[in-house]
Amino acid sequence: MAVQVLICDDSAMARKQLARSLPQDWDAQIRYAVDGEDALAQLAQRPAELLFLDLNMPKLDGYGVLERLQGQPGAPKVLVVSADIQPQAYQRVMDLGALHFLKKPVGAAELKSQLVQFDLYRSGELNHHGLSEVAMDDALREICNIAMGRAADAMAQVLGAFIELPVPKLRRLRSSEMEMLLAESFSDDNLKVISQGFIGNGIAGEALLLFERSCYESMGKLMGLVEVDTEAARLEVQMDTANLLFASFLSGLSQQLHIPFCQSHPVVLSSVPTCHLEGQTLAVEISYRLTNHRILCDLLLFFPQNSLTRLEHNLQYLLE
User: Fold this and answer.
1) Which of 11, 17, 82, 260 is 20 to 30 A away from residue 138, measured at CA?
2) CA angle 296, 299, 301 (to 5 degrees)
3) In this predicted structure, which of 95-104, 124-133, 243-252, 265-274 has the lowest mean pLDDT?
4) Cβ atoms < 10 Å from Cβ of 199
5) Spatial distance between the Cα atoms of 246 and 262, rounded to a whole number of angstroms
6) Would you give the distance in Å from CA 118 to the centre of its chain?
């Protein structure tokens, strides 16, 4: 009898990547859920033996699903597949009853090894039901999601704290719309904005870090600074945070696109940069939060139209 499997991820790209990595000779029936609530509703109607579960999702995240499944009769075994690779994320899902934690994107060999290890693999035919088409923006969001997780892990290791991760937001903006978005950030006296450019293989973009002034003291303490009451100390906190997030995020992006990026030095911006760009600009918005330390910083990435065309070309292999 075929193994009943449910793949739960809010990203169509992630669902397709995972489905493509499954053994084609696995005797299994695969279904798909788009968030935690959808997964629980489907399981109530039709139980599954195995649930592949993402963590960062809207409505109900993976942690919430694991909590709801605890103690339920007939609950599926759960393999977590997530871009959030922080040690605390791993420990938390294991404490909630997951079989194992797999890092996105998971390879075919590793995936089959886990199925064999947990006695879930038997030879047969793999069948899919309800695998949807992948839009380009979903593919872009997913590679940013993975890069975001790498950046959070690097930040967590340096700070010794757990970083709460959101679902990345993507918007395609005209020049005037981008200026309005930036103007909102610069109009807030509580924010400091740091900019760093990057370029590689025909793709050029700009990364901005929006840092709340109220975060200086907490971030400084986590970084081991005794005092952050001078402008020089606060600038050091800003620059260290920017370098850490920019470098680790771009490293994760580089690995997926197979493109090495070169970075400029970060600079503090004091006014809204003028935008004279033709076509659309892709804006990626990511918020990093350390609630226990009252720290919030936002990462914005901008890809102008000429770079966006090249970026989409490099992503075509994910959509095939």
Assistant:
1) 260
2) 170
3) 265-274
4) 14
5) 11
6) 27
The SS3 call for residue 209 is: strand
Q: Which residue has the higher pLDDT, 176 or 144?
A: 144
Taking the C-alpha atoms of residue 82 and residue 89, their distance in angstroms, rounded to an integer, is: 9
pLDDT at 272: 66
Reply yes or no on whether the pLDDT at 190 is more than 80.
no
Q: Cα 283 from chain centroid?
A: 15
Distances from the Cα of 121 to the Cα of 47, 64, 234, 267, angstroms: 18, 27, 54, 53
Interatomic CA distance for residues 245 and 242, integer angstroms: 5
Gap between the Cα atoms of 198 and 251, Å rounded? 11
Q: What pLDDT, on a 0 to 100 scale, did the predictor assign at position 226?
A: 63
CA distances from 162 to 58, 117, 149, 196, 301 (A): 19, 30, 12, 25, 23
Q: Tell me the C-alpha distance between 44 and 33, whole Å.
A: 13
Domain ranges of the chain: 3-128, 136-319
Q: Which CATH superfamily is domain 136-319 in?
A: CheC-like (3.40.1550.10)
What digits encode the pLDDT tens for the residues 139-173?
A: 999 999 999 999 999 989 988 889 998 889 999 98
- CA dist., res. 278 & res. 178, Å (int): 12
For the entire predicted model, the pTM comes to 0.90
Asked which of 31-45, 261-275, 284-298 is least confident by mean pLDDT, the reply is 261-275
Is beta strand 3-8 parallel, antiparallel or unpaired with respect to 28-33?
A: parallel
Question: Looking at the domain that runs over 3-128, which CATH code has it been given?
Answer: 3.40.50.2300
In angstroms, rounded to a whole number, what is the distance separating the alpha carbons of residues 142 and 147? 9
In this prediction, residue 2 carries a pLDDT of 92
Report which DSSP code applies to 229. -
pLDDT in tens, 191-240: 788 889 999 988 999 999 888 777 877 888 888 876 777 888 888 888 88
CA 83 to chain centre: 6
